[in-house]
Every structure is written in structure tokens, then in C-alpha cells.
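Exercise 7.
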Amino acid sequence: MKDAIKINKADNVAVALRELKAGESFFGATLDTDVPMGHKIAITEIGLGQDVIKYGLPIGHATKDIPRGAWVHTHNMATGLSGELSYTYEPSTTELPKREPTTFLGYRREGGRVGIRNEIWIIPTVGCVNDVAKRLAKEGEALVSGSLEGVWAYTHPYGCSQTGGDHETTKRLLASLAHHPNAAAVLIVTLGCENLTEEQFREALGDFDGERIKFLSCQSSEDEIAEGKELLSSLAERAKRYEREPIPSSELIVGMKCGGSDGLSGITANPTVGCFSDLLISMGGTTVLTEVPEMFGAETLLMNRAKNEEVFEKTVKMINSFKSYFLSHGENVYENPSPGNKKGGITTLEDKSCGCVQKGGSAPVSDVIGYGERITERGLNLLAGPGNDLVSATALTAAGAHLVLFTTGRGTPFGAPAPTMKLATNTELATRKSSWIDFSAGTVAEGEDTPESVAARLYELVIEIASGKRTRAEENGCREIAIFKDGVTL
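Solution. The predicted structure, written as C-alpha cells, is:
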């Protein structure tokens, strides 16, 4: 097993792969203190103001002279980033080799769309009817049999007392969820006096099958529970008509994000997901990368992979719009790593971002889509969304992701409406929280595997999940949504 790793030959820091002790020597540097797993070690002298280099890229600068063998973290380095930037398109794309897709057992919907789950989703247009939606989901459990796999309510606090952009965001996000192919049928529950009216919601849906999506207006119903149960019964009959059948993996859409990162995220799980992304795309499939604030500092790596100048400009707009959002609220654009991230060895946003963007592999960027919008292009897509785990995982689902790959070095139990697979960055976490973790990439750090070999195993598990195997979050009943909010609440 390796003890420490120098990721790129240009790096002036190495990363501890286990807890290291003072007096141990690595890459010609003798440690002057204990260093936790995932944290950085100076392997050359780094003078005040000089860049700290990791992944072959600057991840911040030294705030004091850092001697060789020193622990490098928040006490002696800081971000080098600030404000909005101007960008120039310098194309650097790699065409992936074509591979024959394999197959999974999924559900073929009308119009040719594909689902990997066969469920009924209950979506309230306003938080006032959340408990009605939850009660109906509970009542609907009795209908689950045959190919119908579950009845789920996705509650939220919005849909009323919102103005402008927030109102539009809620409407667009919920409408996109209603179109998700993992839902064989959908029940929209309204109150009747909310800002997000049934008429507005129908307009946001656009063309839809009235036998697949039904509405329940609680104020107009004498007994909303009885009427809701009748609607669910008819939706269940429809859902049970679908059966799993072989479908090419080229039709899979997989979302990618991370949370509770540690110093191994950019060495093990994130590169593994990047290799998986390239593998799926080479078969004609689609992946989606989000968490825009966690691209800051590494955004040019993605921008220059845009397939053309139009996609490049869309990427620039996405990045700078998020920076403007931060600044408009008086927030520091680059104050991002959470306490858990820092404890795990992530010091600056550049440090986190250079690891995060590795989930995008090496494929060209096909398109950039807005929050609440749905994917139209195959290949690697970028999705406008924040770093918040549940908000961004919800956005990935609304975009059309059949499932979400979630890498983590700290662990989390949550799940989005789409099956949410947790990938541990280290073996200790995977072992200790086996009830949360679906897959471990820790063997990469232990020298037993490469990201490519682990990605091949991950692909096989994704096919199993797409064919019906439950994720840990699904087994634990962890399913919820969160909606992005920016403006005034009346």
C-alpha cells in the first residue's frame, strides 16, 4: 500500500494516503509534524506568495514560508482566486474511441424514452399540500405490486409567496421532474389559491399525456384523500402495463456530483467517475456534471473542451453568472470548502475544484443546460446548479438523469428521486458506513487498482442498478427534493 502520492510531476506537494507521523520521509522530505490522511505535504520549499501546485495546477498560494516536509493546509496557504474573469477559447478536445454498448433491463416509454424505475410520483405544486401528498403516498403503498415499484411524494416549501425568478425556477423544476421517465405516472397535487396555479403548471408542462399525468385540486375536492386514492388507482393500472426489456446502455443518462469530499476525492473516486463517464459516452451514452461553484478555479479545463465556440460561450456565461450571484449577495466567490471538506484535507476552492472536475473525464463538452432544464444532447453535459448536495442532485434528476453517481469521502445518507449511488473515496468509510455506501474506489489509493480498472467495475454496477438493483439510499427510503431559491419570500 502506498503511503503518499505525488499526483503530477509538476506538484510541489504530495498527499498522505494514511495518517503520517513526524519523522517519516516521503519524496525526499522529512515530516516535521503528524499529517492526517488526505492532507498535503510540502515536498519542496514554498516561499511566501508562491503557488502551491497540486494536480499540476495552482490550488492557492503560501501565506508564509513553507519549509520542505511541512503540513500544508489552512494555516499556511490561501486561495488565489477573486471575482469574474475574461476567458479565451483555446480548444483542447479529445475524441473518444467508439465502443459497442451493452444492455440493461429498463422500461421503454411512449415516444421512445427510457426509465430505469417504474414508479408513481406525487408532486405538490405548493408546500401547503405537502401532508396530503405524503398521506397519499402512504395510502398508495397498497397498490405496489407487479411491475409497479413504488409510490413517492416529493414535498417542498415553495409554490407560493415567491416572485420573479424564484417562481419561474420552482415551476420549471417541478415540471421537468413530472416528465422524468423513471415515473410511469404522476399525480400533481394543487391547493387552488397558490401563486403556481394549475393553469401555469399545465403550460409549463407543455405537451403531456393526460393519462400519465393527472391533477388533484384539494380546495375543489370534497374529499381530497378519497379522490386522490381513486386517481392513484388508475395511475397504478397504467404503470403496471410496463415491463423491463433489454435496452442499449447508449440510452443511459447518468448524473455526477460529489459531497463531503476529502483529500482522496481527486485521487480515487472522482477520477474513477471520470473514467466511467468516458466509457459510457464512448458507447453513445450521456453524463451530466453540475455544481458550478466547484468548477471555480478549474473552469478553463472544461471550457476548452467545449465542442464549439457556442458551447464555450454558454460555459463562460454559466460560470460568470454564478460568480455574479455570489457577489450580488455580498459573498466571497471562493469561500467554498465546508468544515468537513477542510477536515478531510481540502484547503481551497481550487483544491476542491481541480479534484471535482475530474468527474467529467476527458470527453468534449456537448452542451450547457440551465437549472430546471432537460438534456437534449448526448455526451458530456454541464448543468447550471449550486454545490448543495440535495439541490444539485434534484437538478440532475430534473435534467433527466436516470441515476446519480455521488462521490464522498465523509459519507451521507440522502437520496434524490433518481437512484443515488454513493461512491466512497476510501476503504475505511466504505467499511464503516456500509449501510450508506454502494461502491468503494479506495483500492486506487491502496495501489491495488487504477481509476480505469475500478471504472470498469463501476460500469457493471451501474448496469445492475439500471436493471433494478436497489441503491443503499433506496433501501433506506431516502428520497427527497430541494429547490434552488435566490430572491424574496412574500
